UniProtKB/TrEMBL annotation:
Pfam families: RVT_1 (PF00078). The keyword ATP-binding does not apply. It comes from the Bacteria. This is Reverse transcriptase domain-containing protein. InterPro entries: Reverse_transcriptase_msDNA, RT_dom. Keywords: Magnesium, Metal-binding, Nucleotidyltransferase, RNA-directed DNA polymerase, Transferase. Residues 1-203 form the Reverse transcriptase domain. It comes from Pseudosulfitobacter pseudonitzschiae. The keyword Metal-binding applies. GO terms for molecular function: metal ion binding; RNA binding; RNA-directed DNA polymerase activity.
Length: 258
C-alpha cells in the first residue's frame, strides 16, 4: 500500500538503552482497525516457543523457559518489521487463512505500507510472526533436532541447551537469510556456564534475577524521589519506582515454581 500522506506520522520511540528507533504512528481511525486485526490474531493458538506477542506470556516467561540450561545463544533480527514483506503477509492472509484475493487486497492496504509492515502499527507484531510462521517452525524443528530449545520474543531469538552447536546457529542464520532476514552481529551473544540476560531478565542456573543495571536505576530513582518536593514530577518517579519493584517481585516469584 502506498498510503495517503496523512495516514502515518513519523515518530522516534526511545528504547531502553537510551537510543531511538523510528516508528510510523497510524492515524487514529486506521489505528483502531489495525488494533482490531491485532486483537483477532491474538486469539489464534500459538506454538509454545512464541513468547510475544501472546496473551499471558511475558519477557519473564521467555527467560523462565531457559532455566537450567548450561549454554545459550542469543540473536536479534535486524530491522525486523521493515524486513517483513507484503508478499509474505499476503501469503498468510491468502494461503494460511484462506481469504479470497479481494479480501487479501483490503487487508494488505490496511496493514502494510510501501511493501512492508510498518513499525508502529498495532497489527504488525502478530503479523510479523504469522507471515513467517513457516520460517519459525523450521527454526524450531532445527533446534529440537539438535536437542535444544528456542524461544521467540518479537525479534529476539534465544536458543539454549546443555550445549548449543555452532552448526545449529549457522543453520538458523541460513533460515533467516532464506526468508529475507538478517541478524545484528553486535547483539549476538554466546554464553556457556555463566549467567545471561534474556529479554531483560538474568538467567543463572535455575534462578531468575533482575539485572544489576535495573538495581542501580531503582537505587537512583529512590534517591531522586527522596529529594523531590511533593508534586507531579515526584509522583511520576514514584510510579516508575513502584513499577520496577513490582517487576522484581514478579521475577523472583517465578523461582518458586518448578
Amino acid at each position: 500500500m502506498k498510503a495517503a500522506p496523512d495516514l502515518y506520522k513519523p515518530l522516534r520511540k526511545k528504547k531502553k538503552d537510551g537510543t531511538f528507533r523510528p516508528v510510523l504512528a497510524p492515524r487514529g481511525d486506521l489505528k483502531r482497525i489495525q488494533r482490531r486485526i491485532g486483537e483477532l490474531l491474538l486469539r489464534v493458538e500459538t506454538p509454545d516457543y512464541l513468547m510475544s506477542p501472546v496473551r499471558g506470556r511475558s519477557n519473564i516467561d521467555n527467560a523462565a523457559r531457559h532455566r537450567g540450561a548450561a549454554a545459550f545463544h542469543l540473536l536479534d533480527i535486524e530491522d525486523f518489521y521493515p524486513s517483513c514483506t507484503a508478499s509474505k503477509v499476503a501469503w498468510f492472509f491468502g494461503k494460511y487463512l484462506g481469504c479470497p484475493p479481494d479480501v487479501v487486497k483490503v487487508l494488505l492496504d490496511l496493514t502494510t505500507l510501501n511493501g512492508v509492515l510498518p513499525a508502529g502499527s498495532p497489527a504488525s507484531p502478530s503479523l510479523a510472526f504469522w507471515a513467517y510462521a513457516d520460517m519459525w517452525d523450521e527454526i524450531d524443528q532445527l533446534t529440537r533436532d539438535a536437542g535444544c530449545q528456542v524461544s521467540v520474543y518479537v525479534d529476539d531469538i534465544t536458543v539454549s541447551g546443555q550445549s548449543v552447536p555452532g552448526v545449529l546457529i549457522h543453520a538458523i542464520k541460513e533460515r533467516l537469510a532464506h526468508h529475507g532476514h538478517s541478524f545484528k552481529a553486535s547483539k549476538e551473544i554466546g554464553q556457556i556456564n555463566a549467567p545471561v540476560v534474556v529479554t531483560g531478565v538474568v538467567v543463572r542456573d535455575r534462578t531468575l534475577l533482575m539485572p544489576n543495571v535495573q538495581h542501580l536505576e531503582r537505587h537512583k530513582l529512590r534517591a531522586e524521589v527522596a529529594k523531590l518536593p511533593e508534586g507531579y514530577e515526584k509522583a511520576q518517579k514514584m510510579a516508575s519506582l513502584i513499577g520496577r519493584e513490582g517487576t522484581e517481585r514478579q521475577i523472583l516469584a517465578r523461582n518458586n515454581f518448578h
